[in-house]
Design a protein that fits this description.
By secondary structure, this protein is mainly β. The chain folds into two domains: 205 residues, Lipoprotein localisation LolA/LolB/LppX (outer membrane lipoprotein receptor (LolB), chain A, Clam); 149 residues, MucB/RseB, C-terminal domain (Phosphorylase Kinase, domain 1). It has five helices and 20 strands. The strands form two sheets. A twelve-stranded mixed sheet has the order 7-8-9-10-11-1-2-3-4-5-6-12. β10 and β11 form a beta hairpin. α2 runs antiparallel to α3. The chain is globular. The N and C termini lie far apart (52 Å).
Length: 394
């Protein structure tokens, strides 16, 4: 290598297995879980860029995915079908902060339909919604380190052995017995990043992800935005769809939003930017069917700590309006998810972590809050406590 849905309770047997892996003689051998957890903690926030190729084998189909990620929020992605000669370009994604470019060739993997090319500006900075930093199923987020740590701590993932992949030393992780589908992951012992992932689906069908050509901290800049694609399209001349976010001065926040926002101080982080948004006036197709209450507004806050980033979304809580009130619905059906309800001091916040992504949702007084990003579980918990206390002191 070069430089929400229903909340589940982890069974006691699974926790015993996880605890056993922390001690010599357990399924993790010589404290392998502790070694990997220390490595993840050490490497978090130190990586400035990641470049890799992922080869995905899905039965008779093989795909190549090329990723360049300049933390915290500059991304380039291409996906090819290797079953054709030459390989057929399926998808292109480029993101720079709140700007997003997407290209899908002839319906993508399904090979049906016409090519689709889209350009967005001012998209909401919140992960797990399908646009902002949406490649968490690969390695498209800096919160890989914190989310993987949460899965190990909770017993969803077990560190079972030291191994070797293509001559590289690695840790072998497997999903706990109660988890379906079964998953195995091999992560290198230098950066804690994946080398291989295998997922066995119902009926024995297996997906194999092989991570190759991994480069760390090799990128100073990415290709111009929006990215050109080999099909001849370059994004030029496209009419940008408006995501609706507008810069916000916090001194004017109350008047613009129509509610008193919560702007917490987060230890180790600094407020980077703030936006307000009128979702009824945005160009997001997924919101066209929603009837927003008169004057409904959202607040988006982005905090940074070096290469780490946290995103917070706030809106007034309206009991009879279901917009974003499902808590962690976006992570309710994903593979390898740990979910829990925090305590009363944290406002009974709902926290969920999945592979490469995490999310927290709580009601702080009359303000509904969703948090995503690169923070440890204890930092998320502390943030929930701060928000709950701020709301209670009003």
């Amino acid at each position: 290598m070069r430089r929400g849905g229903a909340w589940t309770v982890i069974p006691a047997a699974m926790l015993i297995l996880a605890a056993a892996s922390l001690f010599p003689g357990g399924c993790g051998g010589e404290d392998l879980s502790g070694q990997l957890l220390n490595l993840l903690r050490e490497r978090s926030g130190t990586v400035s860029s990641i470049r890799f190729t992922c080869i995905t084998e899905d039965g008779a189909n093989t795909y190549r995915e090329e990723v360049e990620f300049l933390l915290p929020d500059h991304l380039r992605y291409r996906m090819y079908d290797l079953g054709q000669d030459p390989p057929r370009l399926l998808t292109v994604i480029a993101q720079e902060e709140n700007g997003l470019y997407r290209f899908r060739s002839s319906g993508g993997v399904s090979r049906e339909g016409k090519p689709v090319e889209e350009l967005f500006r001012d998209i909401p900075p919140l992960r797990n919604r399908g646009s902002y930093l949406s490649l968490y199923h690969l390695l498209g987020n800096g919160d890989y380190y914190s989310s993987l740590t949460a899965l190990i701590h909770s017993g969803v993932l077990l560190v079972t052995a030291r191994d070797e992949i293509s001559g590289k030393s690695c840790y072998h992780l497997c999903s706990a017995p109660a988890q379906e589908p079964a998953m195995e992951i091999w992560v290198d012992t230098e950066y804690g990043l994946p080398l291989r992932k295998e997922m066995t689906l119902e009926g024995g069908r297996k997906l194999i992800f092989s991570y190759q050509d991994l480069e760390i901290d090799s990128l100073q800049a990415l290709e111009p935005f929006p990215a050109g694609v080999e099909s001849g399209a370059e994004g030029a001349g496209l009419e940008a769809k408006d995501g609706g976010c507008r810069p916000l001065s916090l001194e004017e926040a109350g008047a613009v939003l129509g509610f008193a926002p919560l702007v917490p101080e987060i230890p180790g982080f600094e407020l980077y930017r703030a936006w307000w948004r009128d979702p009824a006036a945005s160009g997001d197709p997924s919101e066209r069917s929603l009837r927003f209450p008169e004057g409904f507004r959202e607040l988006y806050l982005v905090y940074r700590s070096g290469n780490r980033q946290l995103e917070i979304r706030e809106s007034p809580f309206l009991k009879d309006f279901g917009y974003y009130t499902t808590g962690l619905a976006t992570l309710s059906e994903v593979y390898l998810a740990h979910r829990e309800t925090l305590g009363e001091e944290e406002g009974n916040a709902l926290y969920a972590a999945s592979l490469d992504c995490q999310e927290m949702h709580l009601l702080a007084g009359e303000v509904e809050v969703t948090v995503t990003g690169d923070a440890w579980r204890e930092e998320m918990r502390d943030l929930a406590r701060r928000l709950h206390s701020m709301a209670g002191s009003r």
